[in-house]
Amino acid sequence: MQKLLLRSMDRTLSPEEDKQLSAALEHSEELRNERDELLAMRGKLKEQDYRFAPFFVAKVLNKLEPEDRQTIETWFAQMGFAFQRVGLPAMAVVVLLLLTTFFVEQSLSWDVITGTSELTVDDLMTGVISSF
To answer: In whole angstroms, how far apart are CA 30 and each of 17, 26, 72, 95?
Structure first.
């Protein structure tokens, strides 16, 4: 009944729903009290003036932007440190592996880099069948 009561505040109920709500309100003092509280709250909310001062949004955004800029700059500084500590050595390892692959295979094609240059259809079928 509470859901029906809330819906009755915002839109017109069907005749059947209206009868159900009226009957429930007649028999339940708790529901009547809740209706009265909701009506009082709605009245108070209608009386409120929700206008913001001129340039309110601009003022809020101006106060937020310096912090955001500082956060972004801090993030980039941290990423630079992480790149120096992890990224550069990892890149050196990748370059060494590519050079080794090139000297051993005399090629840097995608098949050679991924190690699939010597695979045959039988190898693939054996792997597919054994996985089942």
So the answer is: 19, 10, 54, 76
